[in-house]
Design brief:
The chain is an alpha+beta fold and about 110 residues long. Helices cover about 30% and strands about 30% of the residues. The termini are far apart.
């Protein structure tokens, strides 16, 4: 399902370690990631709820798949601040690492 664009798009904020990881790999428009991080940000700004909710200790979080250049699927784990309409990306990395980092940061 595609949501209609909201009157007020969501704002995406990266945890400092996530921002550093993105910068290390060439920035938001780097072809290192598929989709590019800038494309993921566009999706999150329009409809972050298109991504599935997690279970267990991350039941308040959602995640999006991002494929790294070597073909390994990474996860971007984030939460939503409904009132402020902010998407907080807590972690970005290979599956287990991303979830472990998110548990520590949320």
């Amino acid at each position: 399902d595609t949501a209609a664009p909201a009157a007020h798009p969501w704002t995406v904020k990266f945890h400092s370690k996530v921002a550093k990881t993105i910068a290390t790999h060439g920035g938001e428009d780097s072809a290192t990631f598929r989709p590019k991080i800038s494309e993921l940000v566009d999706q999150l700004e329009v409809n972050p709820k298109q991504f599935p909710k997690k279970r267990g200790p991350l039941k308040d979080a959602r995640s999006a798949n991002v494929t790294f250049a070597d073909g390994v699927v990474w996860r971007a784990v984030f939460t939503l601040d409904e009132t402020a309409r902010i998407v907080k990306v807590h972690s970005l990395g290979p599956h287990d690492e991303a979830y472990a980092d998110a548990i520590r940061r949320i």
